[in-house]
Write a structure and sequence with these properties.
two-stranded antiparallel ribbon; alpha+beta; 31% strand; 25% helix; Deoxyuridine 5'-Triphosphate Nucleotidohydrolase, Chain A
Length: 221
């Protein structure tokens, strides 16, 4: 059974920190983007250190088309063993082309921030900001505690750098491929121009040589 918005407003402080009843949206609670982000860089090794961004309030995170991002929540979530959480992105982000590829539930017994893996499937770069309303969580009560099957690993408190190894060593979006094709076309045009110029010089040199030989053949000095 899913919990109502009234029950969430009354008891949500037991499961969400910090908690504000005004952030209850229907039967869901609105979570914000936290102070860390990772965006896969185009054409670069995603496993190199130093790519996790530390964010100040309202700091922007740019997610280019075709690239992945890890975003944490500002809030910590603590679920008892008889509650299951369901999560998703707000429609404003989904309408901009972002897709949640990290899953849609929170295990009973989870304690920590939530980590979202995001993919920009749209044609434009999407900008999100630290502390922006971005995610929703619903709670469903189970008919009993599930301690035996609860998550044993600790929850996220920051972006785990080992997650970078789960991404390709180099990411290639349509945007980056187009840029590379443009570079190749410019290089080919440059090379063709050089060859054309060299060919013109060669033709002029041969023509001059032929003219010189013809002149000599006709008795010129």
């Amino acid at each position: 059974m899913f919990l109502s918005g009234d029950l969430l407003a009354a008891q949500g402080g037991d499961w969400i920190t910090p908690f504000d009843p005004a952030r209850v949206d229907g039967a869901a609670y609105t979570l914000r983007i936290g102070d860390e982000a990772f965006v896969s860089p185009e054409g670069r090794d995603t496993r190199k250190p130093g790519l996790v961004q530390r964010l100040e309030h309202k700091a922007a995170v740019l997610i280019p088309p075709g690239q992945f991002a890890y975003l944490t929540t500002r809030e910590f979530v603590t679920l008892p063993h008889n509650l299951l959480g369901f999560i998703n992105m707000k429609s404003t982000l989904k309408n901009s082309g972002l897709v949640n590829v990290s899953g849609f539930h929170v295990d009973p017994g989870y304690k920590g921030k939530l980590l979202f893996a995001i993919f920009n499937a749209g044609p434009q770069t999407v900008t999100v900001r630290c502390d922006q309303d971005a995610f929703l969580i619903w709670f469903a009560r189970l008919d009993g505690a599930t301690e035996k099957y609860a998550r044993k690993k600790p929850g996220f408190r920051e972006i785990d750098t080992t997650l970078m190894g789960l991404l390709p060593t180099e990411t290639a979006s349509l945007n980056s491929i187009n840029k590379r094709m443009d570079q190749i076309e410019r290089r080919i045009s440059y090379a063709v121009g050089i060859l054309s110029l060299a060919g013109a010089f060669a033709v002029a040199a041969v023509s001059g040589l032929v003219a010189s030989l013809a002149f000599k053949a006709l008795g010129g000095s």
